[in-house]
From TrEMBL:
Residues 322-331 have a biased composition (Gly residues). Pfam families: Glyco_hydro_16. Residues 295-346 are annotated as: Disordered. Residues 295-321 have a biased composition (Low complexity). GO terms for molecular function: hydrolase activity, hydrolyzing O-glycosyl compounds. PANTHER family: GLYCOSIDASE CRH2-RELATED, GLYCOSYL HYDROLASE-RELATED. This is Glycosidase CRH2. It comes from Coemansia spiralis. Residues 1-20 form the signal peptide. GO terms for biological process: carbohydrate metabolic process. Residues 72-279 form the GH16 domain.
């Protein structure tokens, strides 16, 4: 399950305009969680709530899928979202929490969790892919942070706006286990989780975890062995006449968080508790590489730049793109997400 953002800690830093009316102004056009601003933290597709933003072009357009292997050999592979220029080909992942405990080190993406005395629990890290993903295969080579009860590591595909989500999760309580799960439109249904015994300590060595997502099925694999298949057909809800199957474009994301001190009893029992903490404790999750193969018509059809742009990204966007085969932005220069007009200084 995705822990929703630590925006509250971040807003003080960037001081966005507090939402006064039902809509944001053209100077702070992007709406997110009760605030308006013009930065990536607010305007990024999926984080930005289009229905409450200044107008229908305020939120950045979805970037589309990019077939690529990210090896975390460059510090550019993950940047704090506050310093993101808007060019998804320049930075594969964006760290969305502040303080930022995600970094590149020794060829890995490292997500750390540290003790936050004011909250009396761990403050972790979450990174979102800068490209969107809808249908395809993603494999992450992960060494988990399952070294103590309560520490949760996750590798998911999620759409924050619709609540569709596909998960791998590891709980510190059971270091040899990986859990697979999915959510349809944020419907909380605790019966969908299936655990799998990796037969090894997932925090001791890297393993390959794969999500293969098509319109008709989701296959979760560990070290190339399928461990679970969900057929869309099996998710039919006859009452609602709906397939309760994740079907909206999302972002690949990694996260470490404190389930053991979360305060919710069910979460604590699930993750193990209490999470052991001293002032100097640091828990770390490592991602060695992420291989993404886009499939199908995964691209968005961007409708062009918003009228108000200043765009940090335009010139450097390559026509060629790493957007494999079918997906991506089709190489159109208008597909670059547009930065909004900066807020005026009052
Ligand atoms: C099926 O759909 C109905 C109507 O939308 C909803 O109330 C119900 O909770 C759904 N069932 C499950 C298992 O989610
Ligand atoms: C992909 O394209 C086919 C044919 O154009 C269409 O029927 C299908 O709905 C598309 N799928 C998505 C996810 O857009
Ligand atoms: C959105 O707002 C901009 C000004 O910020 C304006 O130029 C544009 O026409 C608006 N678009 C729509 C669809 O209202
Ligand atoms: C596209 O890719 C080819 C081959 O990799 C390269 O030679 C060319 O310079 C690229 N073009 C652009 C616009 O990046």
């Amino acid at each position: 399950m995705r822990i929703t953002s630590a925006l509250a800690s971040a807003v003080a830093l960037i001081a966005p305009a507090v939402l006064a009316q039902s809509q944001c102004s053209q100077w702070s056009p992007c709406y997110r969680e009760g605030y308006c601003d013009s930065s990536a933290m607010f305007c990024l597709w999926g984080l930005c709530d289009e229905s409450k933003s200044y107008n229908s072009t305020s939120c950045w357009k979805p970037e589309g899928c990019a077939s690529q292997t990210v090896t975390f050999d460059s510090t550019n592979d993950v940047v704090p979202i506050n310093s993101y220029s808007g060019n998804p080909n320049a930075n594969a992942f964006l760290s969305v929490f502040d303080p930022n405990y995600a970094s590149v080190a020794n060829g890995n993406l490292v997500l750390q969790m540290k003790y936050d005395a004011s909250a009396n629990k761990g403050f972790g890290a979450t990174v979102d892919a800068s490209h969107t993903f809808q249908y395809g295969k993603v494999t992450a080579r992960v060494k988990t942070a399952s070294v103590a009860p309560g520490v949760v590591s996750s590798f998911i595909v999620r759409n924050d706006q619709t609540g569709d989500e596909i998960d791998f999760e590891w709980v510190g309580k059971v270091p040899s286990q990986v859990q697979t799960n999915y959510y349809y439109r944020d419907v909380l249904d605790y019966t969908k989780m299936v655990a799998y015994d990796v037969k090894a300590d997932t925090s001791a060595d890297y393993h390959d975890y794969t999500i293969e997502w098509t319109e008709n099925s989701i296959v979760w694999s560990v070290d190339a062995q399928p461990i679970r298949t969900l057929q869309r057909s099996s998710t039919f809800n006859s009452t609602g006449n709906t397939y309760m199957y994740p079907s909206t474009m999302g972002r690949i994301a990694f996260s470490i968080w404190d389930g053991g001190n979360s305060g919710a009893q069910g979460t604590q029992e699930w993750a193990g508790y209490p999470t052991p903490w001293s002032a100097s404790t640091v828990y770390s999750m490592y991602v060695d590489s992420v291989n993404i193969e886009c499939s199908g018509n995964s691209s968005s059809t961007p409708t062009g730049p918003s009228a108000s742009e200043s765009a940090g990204a335009s010139a450097t966007e390559s026509g060629n793109n790493s957007d494999g085969g079918s997906g991506g932005n089709g190489g159109s220069p208008t597909s670059t997400p547009q930065k909004c007009i900066p807020r005026p200084v009052y």
